[in-house]
């Protein structure tokens, strides 16, 4: 296993991106190690860095790991409560929209029809020209999740 970078746990936004990259490369052990470091940062880092790690970084990292492990209800449990504060740790609208897209997909896969529909409708309002909203709608209907 390659040596871990010393900056893990320093900035939650970067740690989330590293974790997502590990998951994409099927390196679950490194993703879990990153979550562990972010969790430590949420207890020990000074000031705003501690708050970002604890209140945004940990739930996002845990939610992404749960999604990779196909634990979709758990993904929803981690990501739904922080969706209104995820902007606190920075990034572009497109980067933060990745969290929303993951949350919608997790709601669909966990058969939470009401939540999936509400999130998809909200996404459609915020991004009316997005073809992704139509794909989510079709997926909900195809999975017989539509009310």
Task: Describe, in plain words, how this protein is organized in 3D.
- With 147 residues, this protein is mainly α.
- The chain has a single domain, classed as Serine Threonine Protein Phosphatase 5, Tetratricopeptide repeat.
- Helices cover 70% and strands 0% of the residues.
- It is built from 7 helices and no strands.
- Helix 3 runs antiparallel to helix 4.
- The longest helix is centred in the middle third of the chain and has 22 residues, at 47-68.
SSE topology string? HHHHHHH
The residue ranges in which pLDDT falls below 50 over 5 or more consecutive positions are: none
How many domains is the backbone divided into?
1
Q: DSSP strand (E) fraction?
A: under 5%
- The CATH class turns out to be Mainly Alpha
User: What would the CATH topology be?
Assistant: Serine Threonine Protein Phosphatase 5, Tetratricopeptide repeat
What is the tally of beta strands?
A: 0
**What is the overall shape?**
globular
- How many individual helices? 7
CATH architecture name: Alpha Horseshoe
Query: What structural class results from the helix and strand content?
Result: mainly alpha
Rg (C-alpha, Å): 16 Å
Tags for this model:
Serine Threonine Protein Phosphatase 5, Tetratricopeptide repeat, 70% helix, 7 helices, 147 residues
